[in-house]
Specification:
The complex is a heterodimer of chains A (114) and B (133). Chain A is built from three helices and four strands. Chain A is of the alpha+beta class. Chain A has one domain (2-113): Histidine kinase-like ATPase, C-terminal domain (Heat Shock Protein 90, 2-Layer Sandwich), CATH 3.30.565.10. Chain A has a four-stranded antiparallel beta sheet with strand order 1-2-4-3. In chain A, helix 2 packs antiparallel against helix 3. Chain B has one domain: Transcription Regulator spoIIAA. Chain B contains six helices and five strands; from the N terminus they run H-E-E-H-E-H-E-H-H-E-H. Chain B has a five-stranded mixed beta sheet with strand order 1-2-3-4-5. Classes of the chains: A alpha+beta (114), B alpha/beta (133). Chains A and B meet through helix 2 and helix 3 of A and helix 3 and helix 4 of B.
């Protein structure tokens, strides 16, 4: 991914932010997508003109992270719902996050412009 | 990736531990009655276990107030934030003060987005954290 990011011209700071978005989403999938046990996550990285696109798919329970309510970070931590913070960070770290349900798969796409 | 071979699993566990050590350096020192724990590198899902364990042992040793020096930290995820919060609670339970110092770049931004700036005592550097006590 880092090599392709350099080819696209995405600066290092934005790659670190993309890295964080990927970690947060992958963690979320590992925790919640497969309540029955093991499952897989697929990662695809591609270039679309001046944009680096990372697509993560899973076959877990349907869940749209872009539609999830954002936590109110001014509230005391004890009153916040768990897991919300990771998704909030994920959404703030990249230029665009999109979601689609493709058959039995969740597909989350991150776009980072150079 | 599913691993059913116990030997393979053990090897994977070992290589994960080695990787965690490379990605996050931890060092400790005493400074005017404060224990300074410095983090260098990445505090993420891979390295967080090591930090949590070491930090808890360190707080439990009861060497006084604790300040985390994050000036060498380049990356923190929500897993890392949760662990830092857990450490703060642990210190408070032992009547020790807990401060965080030296936030920069992405780490500073992550703290701001998460609202942690208002939850924890944050200082520009270790010296000002100690001076404020």
């Amino acid at each position: 991914m880092t090599g392709l990011a350099a080819d696209v011209g995405v600066p290092g700071e934005k790659v670190a932010r993309l890295d964080l978005a990927i970690e947060e989403w992958a963690t979320n999938v590992c925790r919640y997508a497969y309540p029955g046990g093991n499952g897989s996550v697929w990662v695809a990285v591609r270039r679309e003109g001046p944009t680096l696109v990372v697509e993560l798919s899973d076959e877990g329970s349907p869940f749209d992270p872009t539609a999830a309510a954002e936590p109110d970070v001014s509230m005391p931590l004890s009153e916040r719902s768990p897991g919300g913070l990771g998704l909030l960070l994920m959404r703030r770290m990249v230029d665009e996050v999109s979601y689609r349900r493709d058959g039995h798969r969740n597909v989350v796409t991150f776009a980072v412009r150079s | 990736m599913a691993m059913f071979d116990p030997q393979e699993r053990e090897e994977a566990g070992r290589s994960m531990a080695t990787r965690a050590e490379r990605l996050l350096e931890l060092s400790e020192r005493d400074d005017q009655g404060w224990s300074v724990l410095a983090l260098k590198g990445r505090l993420d899902s891979v390295t967080v276990g090591r930090f949590t364990e070491r930090c808890a042992a360190w707080i439990d040793a009861g060497r006084g107030n604790v300040v985390l020096d994050l000036s060498g930290l380049d990356y923190v995820s929500s897993a890392g934030l949760s662990s830092i919060l857990g450490a703060a609670k642990r210190a408070q339970e032992r009547n020790a003060r807990f401060a965080v110092a030296g936030l920069k770049g992405l780490v500073k931004e992550v703290f701001a987005i998460s609202g942690f700036e208002t939850v924890l005592s944050i200082f520009p550097d270790v010296e000002s954290a100690i001076a404020a006590s």
